[in-house]
Structures are given as C-alpha cells and as structure tokens.
Design brief:
With about 160 residues, the protein is an alpha+beta fold. It has 4 helices and 7 strands. Helix 1 (about 10-25) packs parallel to helix 2 (about 45-60) and helix 2 (about 45-60) runs antiparallel to helix 4.
C-alpha cells in the first residue's frame, strides 16, 4: 500500500459525496462537524475512503427513510485523529457487536458479511482502531482512531 499525507476532512468529504445518492434517496438528515484545522494522517486515500464509505452505507441502510440522522465528526485529540460516525437506526443487538468484524457475519437480508471485515482490515493497516457502540432501537456509533501526521514527520 502507498501512504501519503491526506486531510481526514477531505477523505470524509469524498466518502460522503459517493454515498450522497443513497442519503438523498432515503431522505436522511446529515450533520457534519469538522475540526477547524485540517486533521492530517498518512493514508492510502482509496482504501480509507472505502472504509468510511462502508460505515456510512451501513448507517444509511440501518435508518428508516425520512427519519434518519447521520452525524459525522472529525476531530483531533492529542496525537490522534478521531472520526465518529453515528446513526439513529435500528441499532445492533449486544450479542452481534463482538461478531461485527467476522468474515461472512451479517445481520442484513442482503449482505455478504465482508464490508466491516474489510473496513477493520483497512483501519488496522493504517495502524488505527475501530470501535462500535450500539443499542437496539437507538442507533450505532462507529469510532475510528488514527495517528496524527504532522508536516515534516517521516511516515
């Protein structure tokens, strides 16, 4: 994989733009909050965009058309960059949360169970972490944490 410096905000903008048709079709409200300064990371832009896109699409599919709220936050915390993607969808049963990243595990009628497996692998290849918080009927929150990259640092 080739890693270059990228702004998390611009990566997220691309993932959102790619999912905008689904968001619009489902009449999902969107709330995006970015840190006021660019959050730089070393990333394979294409892979990380796919990881964020997978999370966004899952969130959109979990929400009721016309009633959904998708919240995306990008912020810095010490030497970390944190992305929080939250939905108010159907939520994930507690017994399924530990299996979310297993290959071929899916709670969807039309899923192959590889989206979040690939997402986790991409995040791990970026030396990051991904965690999930969810309650059935209340929605889900995916938190992706990546190392900050400052100008002048070697990758």
């Amino acid at each position: 994989l080739t890693f270059e410096q990228h702004s998390l905000q611009s990566l997220m903008d691309e993932a959102v733009a790619e999912s905008l048709d689904r968001i619009t079709l489902q009449q999902i409200n969107m709330q995006i909050r970015y840190a006021s300064t660019p959050c730089f990371i070393m990333a394979n832009k294409e892979k990380l965009r796919i990881a964020f896109l997978n999370i966004i699409i899952n969130a959109v599919e979990a929400m009721e058309p016309g009633k959904g709220l998708l919240s995306i936050t990008v912020e810095s915390s010490k030497n970390l960059q944190v992305v929080v993607i939250r939905d108010n969808g159907c939520g994930i049963p507690a017994e399924n949360i530990s299996r979310l990243f297993e290959p071929y595990f899916t709670g969807k009628m039309k899923g192959n169970g590889l989206g979040l497996t690939n997402t986790q692998n991409i995040i791990l290849n970026h030396k990051g972490s991904i965690t999930v918080k969810s309650k059935p009927g209340q929605g889900s929150t995916f938190i992706v944490t990546l190392l900050q990259h400052l100008d002048g640092e070697n990758a």
